[in-house]
Amino acid sequence: MQGRFHKYNKSSKENRTYNGIVFDSKTEMNRYLELLQLERLGTVAKLMCQVEFELQPAFTDFSGKKQRAINYIADFVYVKGGKIIVEDVKSNMTCTLPDYRLKKKMFMFKYPQYQFFENVK
Fold first, then answer.
1. Beta-carbon contacts of residue 111 (< 8 Å; ≥ 6 apart)
2. Helix, strand or coil, per DSSP, at residue 108
3. How far from chain centre, in Å, is Cα 89?
4. Residues of the chain where predicted confidence (pLDDT) is lower than 50
5. Please, are residues 81 and 46 in contact by the beta-carbon 8 Å criterion?
6. Which contiguous run of DSSP H or E holds residue 110?
7. Which residues pair with 87 in a beta bridge?
8. For 73, which of 2, 23, 39, 102 is 20 to 30 Å away at the CA?
9. Beta pairing partners, 51
């Protein structure tokens, strides 16, 4: 019996590009536009996209094999109400993926000074 595979149908690159920035989805691009507007209004400040955080450094294991670092890339980082917000835009499906859930927990443990916001659309 053959399994059925569903193709993940992302929107075309043109439909998810703004000002030269290509976003992973239209939803992420639309959230960026919302955050830009909030920044213009002074509600948020210091908006950044695709900020990388190291969750675990690279190391060499007991056999001498090099293991790569584990990194988490946040969709957005900004300041709101004096707090640094780290935001990730996810669909209902992607927020349940084991890799994402593990990285989210590792991030929250290693960076308790940041407020994590999971924007599920």
1. 53, 86
2. helix
3. 6
4. 1-9
5. no
6. helix 98-110
7. 76, 117
8. 39
9. 74
19 contacts: CB under 8 Å, gap ≥ 6: none
Q: Which amino acid is at 47?
A: L
Report DSSP state, residue 99: H
CA distances for 11 relative to 26, 28, 55, 58, angstroms = 7, 12, 30, 34
- Positive or negative CA dihedral for 90, 92, 97, 101? positive
Counting every residue written for the chain, the total comes to 121
Pair 89, 28: CB distance under 8 Å: yes
What is the token pair recorded at 104? 């989210």
DSSP state of 8: -
CB 91 within 8 A of CB 27: yes
